[in-house]
Amino acid sequence: MTLFYLVRHGEPQWELNERYKLKGHGRDLVPLTANGVNQVYLTAKDKRLQEAELIVSSPYPRALQTAAILSKELQLDVIVEFDLREWQPDLTFEYDSLDRLKELGDDFDQNNGIYPPGETRIWESKESLKHRVGQVIEKYSNYSKVIITGHGMAFRTLIGEIGEIPHASVIEFRSR
Fold it and tell me: Which residues form a coiled coil (predicted)?
């Protein structure tokens, strides 16, 4: 049974989205703040991570930057997995504000991530998110201990609702 260390990315520079009026997946291109970088350096000192064999990362810059810092500090290789990307709030790739993101996230939460009977939504369902992240987890189940750098909603969906996951925190998850 593989032990995965799910490490949420450090604090991102969300304000860049508003400054550059980014839309859709462009909003996922922001790097970490200086505080976010420091958060990850502190996380790299977590003794549990010292035994990991590999880092697997989401393709988004905030997760990649987190993985790069951990890689440097722990002397581990990084593999990027496209399906570790964060929950997709708008499959049309048109949302363009924090307010719209909150609106979509609230609708997801109110419906427990499940489309109401006979309806569709523009957000990715919980089932879809859990399936794609679970497939990545399964792919690395031949290792003993693996670090996964990724995102709050993706991790919450994988392990069950546990509320907000702090930036640069470590959650232990065992594959079955």
Answer: none
